[in-house]
Here is the input.
Amino acid sequence: WMLRQLSERSRCANYRFKISSLHPKNPLNKADNFEARALRHLERNRDAAYYYEFDETQQQLYYLEPLKTAEKCMQCHSNEKEGDIRGGITIVHDAGFYFEERKMFLIQTAVVGAIFFGMLFFIFRMYCLLLRRNRELIRLTETLEDKVNLRTNELDEQNNYLQAVLDSSPDIIIITDGEHLLSANGSFFNFFHYPTLDAFRAEHDCICDFFEKVDVLEYLHDKKIEGQLWPFYLLDLPELKHKVQMTIDTETLFFSIKARSLEGFSSKVLVELSDITDVEIQKKSFEKLAKIDK
Here is the structure.
């Protein structure tokens, strides 16, 4: 009775409460739709301590706790058993603040989600672009590698052909920077009796090591002439006929020597030595005969 009086006199703006029952003695306590659902639920689920619902349209929270028959209640309610649910206390609370908070939470969640998925999309797009760029680089690298290999094979073929041409020459042909031997043809190895260029380099730096001193101006015998390395000296005086004398295995031979620059290689010179031993011997014989006649 006291609880009913309090519920009837309650005038709180944010909430109100009342008692209700499925079988009320007072018609004013008859359960409404929510209370009927709540009481039936609590009768089916005796362990449940309460039942509640949110009304999003009215933005209100409906909460109900059961009123169970106690031993002292049976003095007035003798027709009921202890533990029966006689009714419930309903509290209706204004939940506008909750819906506002939930609305703000949903908006914030939507914004954060949009930013997150936007970043994911951006990362995915960047990944796709990088992946496509990487594939293009791989394709370009493979294409470039194929071109380099093709060009390398072409250069190897050209070098092999050039070497074959040089090897077919009876003259000694070398490439030098004036101090070191860089390349040579077959006639060079046949003349000096070295199997490879490395074998020659192991004992000599330059072919000029074999040049012998001859007291004639046209013969070369030093690595440097007038301050220049001997190949570049030859390049600067192409109009002169230069010669060298070399002795191999006790045999002295004479060579005419010419130099040509290599296009694109300013520090390298191609040198050709032609055997003129027979001519020089015959020339010296003539000179000897001329002295006898005098």
